[in-house]
Amino acid sequence: TSVYDYIELLSSSQTQSLKGKLISYSDSTSTQIVVIIINSTKGEDINYLAANWGEKWGVGQKGKDNGVILMLARNDRKVAIQAGRGTEGRLTDLMSKRIIEQRIIPEFKRGDYYKGLDKGTDGIFEVLTGEFKEKRKRKKRYNWLDKDFSGLLPIIILIIIVISFINGRGGGRRRSSYGGGTYGGYRSFGSGSSSSGSFGGGGFSGGFGGGSFGGGGASGSW
Fold first, then answer.
1. Burial group, residue 131, by CB count within 10 angstroms (0-12, 13-18, 19+)
2. Taking the model in full, what pTM does it have?
């Protein structure tokens, strides 16, 4: 099956709805996406646990490794996405993280676990088909051309005059004593880079097909 709810978190109708969607997706693409719901990882890293289960169960088709595990540990308030090796070019760790943060966790915070899992699996579908749309908050860039600096113009002129006067008095023999100095500056902090690993899964007819997982993945908490 495609949904393993060990704690009966979802209602029967919710489970059937989620199962039907995942099986239909598998029938049309051969990619197996499995949802696992547990109370706790009991201290185990949720990424490792999800990848380990996916590997042992053989989620995905043998040779294609096109399986995906979406694991929820309710009491730990953690969720993870693990992709099989065959989908690493699309469902990367970075994309999985964005699905978790943008689609899943907001619903979990509201207490709607079904909706979070439903939106999360939709996000996985979209990433695998290249249709995933991010909701990014873009910082507005400061454009000095948009501002009116007419009030500062006299001050700027005054500063230039003072600097010119000081440089004039410090000429000749004294200039060599003070020239060539470095006066501070700003240290810039670049944004960190994200390396993305990935894995892969696929197909439900006759059970799991022997797919393989490599680890890594993405997780989040709320």
1. exposed
2. 0.66
